[in-house]
């Protein structure tokens, strides 16, 4: 996103001196406001086109027809005006990513309409604005299997009977996963993937103390194609931890493996030989975390810091959300926070929707704590049992998700709540949630973490 912001000055250098008033879009049946310029110089947009292709990929497709528009003196809230315009054309707006940097801000978005889908970038920097967007060709879904006909005619009586088909040969049984037999002088073990299959290329770190000199020592190895490892070590007692590193959506993640013993401090006597086995798991309480743990690093899954803007929303979000929201979700409303996976998870498996449910806290009467706004009451926590204005939604299997939040009011009616990825843009019915790894994360040096927590803002 930073790179996208920096492309803006280079693009502005290629603009014609005369600004066309309100040029018509080539992608949708509408015209831009006065001051917009449609850029057609391919050299000028070459780098921005690369960023647009990434945006299209994030939206689940590829660009087929693109358009680049520049405003050198944009009016205030131009992006919000644009978003309202595309919604009036029947498109559903979805924010995919957002960044606010010292040198500008940028948004990545997707639009779904009755006849076509689009993806784009909105960039504002140095008092200028750029829109880069394109028509999407979405990735093809597999064709559904054709259902068998409800009725099939009987063959004519005179026809010869067809021979019965030969019985299908049973599939060969899956090869059993073998745990290596302990042998004196070695620490051995087996590492499995999330489906219980041997995991090759997992890193295993041994640390221990030798019997003869009481010397602390450590070793490292990788699992073979059958998921096993074997290390010849001096006689002593050894512990182990294992990790697996893989790439997902252009990011490199390292995952700690779950020890089969359930205790990360399990040790073995190498003079007798011993096994220390592991398995990759995408969710669940991390081995060694106590019951009732609630930190994001206490779980194998990823985490979202879900932050309520408050009533009025300026309590913890931008000043522009200063009014008490009419028809806010009253106390006792049931809030459903739904994470719907987009595509496969990091291990290649198919994800399932994850839903968190809680009851809304009551809204104080006008003039009551914690606000004295004459137009209505206020509250600082959305959840009735939240100790602070935000809460953690932990242990989501790593993937890409669409997040929506719906309040079911006491009268049974439903109301969507607004979402955003920054505290100044809490305007969306849904957002796309993606995670990134810790900077320079090395599983040999840490006991927890590895995935940065994502912050999402919500308001009535």
TrEMBL record:
InterPro entries: CarboxyPept-like_regulatory. Keywords: Signal. Coiled coil: none annotated. Residues 144-177 are annotated as: Disordered. Pfam families: CarboxypepD_reg. SUPFAM superfamilies: Carboxypeptidase regulatory domain-like. Residues 1-20 form the signal peptide. Transmembrane segments: none annotated. This is Carboxypeptidase regulatory-like domain-containing protein.
């Amino acid at each position: 996103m930073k790179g996208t912001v920096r492309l803006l000055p280079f693009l502005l250098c290629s603009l014609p001196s005369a600004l066309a008033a309100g040029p018509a879009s080539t992608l949708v049946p509408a015209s831009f406001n006065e001051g917009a310029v449609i850029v057609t110089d391919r050299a000028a947009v070459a780098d921005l086109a690369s960023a647009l292709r990434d945006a299209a990929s994030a939206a689940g497709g590829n660009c087929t027809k693109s358009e680049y528009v520049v405003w050198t003196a944009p009016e205030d809230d131009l992006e919000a005006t644009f978003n309202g315009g595309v919604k009036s054309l029947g498109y559903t707006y979805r924010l995919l990513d957002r960044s606010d940097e010292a040198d500008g801000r940028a948004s990545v978005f997707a639009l779904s309409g009755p006849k076509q889908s689009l993806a784009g970038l909105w960039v504002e920097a140095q008092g200028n604005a750029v829109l880069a967007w394109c028509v999407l060709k979405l990735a093809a879904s597999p064709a559904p299997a054709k259902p068998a006909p409800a009725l099939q005619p009987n063959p004519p009586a005179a026809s010869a009977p067809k021979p019965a088909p030969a019985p299908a040969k049973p599939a060969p049984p899956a090869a059993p996963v073998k745990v290596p037999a302990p042998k004196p002088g070695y620490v051995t073990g087996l590492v499995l993937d999330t489906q219980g299959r041997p995991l090759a290329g997992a890193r295993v770190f041994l640390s221990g103390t030798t019997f003869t000199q009481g010397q602390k020592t450590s070793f490292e190895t990788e699992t073979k194609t059958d998921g096993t490892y074997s290390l010849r070590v001096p006689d002593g007692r050894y512990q182990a931890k294992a990790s697996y590193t893989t790439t997902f959506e252009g990011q490199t993640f390292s995952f700690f493996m779950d020890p089969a013993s359930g205790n990360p401090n399990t040790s073995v006597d190498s003079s007798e030989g011993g096994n220390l086995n592991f398995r990759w798991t995408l969710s669940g309480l991390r081995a060694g975390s106590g019951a009732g743990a609630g930190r994001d690093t206490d779980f194998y899954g990823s985490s979202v810091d879900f932050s309520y803007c408050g009533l009025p929303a300026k309590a913890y979000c931008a000043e522009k959300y200063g009014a008490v929201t009419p028809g806010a979700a009253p106390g006792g409303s049931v809030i459903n926070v739904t994470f719907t996976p987009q595509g496969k998870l990091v291990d290649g498996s198919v994800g399932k929707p994850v839903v968190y449910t809680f009851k809304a806290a009551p809204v104080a009467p006008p003039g009551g704590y914690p606000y004295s706004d004459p137009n209505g009451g206020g509250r600082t926590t959305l959840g009735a049992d939240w100790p602070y204005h935000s809460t953690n939604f932990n242990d989501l299997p790593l993937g890409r998700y669409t997040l929506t939040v719906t309040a079911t009011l006491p009268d049974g009616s439903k109301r969507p709540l607004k979402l955003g990825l920054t505290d100044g843009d809490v305007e969306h019915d849904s957002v796309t949630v993606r995670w990134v790894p810790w900077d320079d994360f090395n599983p040999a040096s840490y006991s927890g973490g590895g995935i940065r927590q994502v912050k999402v803002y919500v308001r009535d």
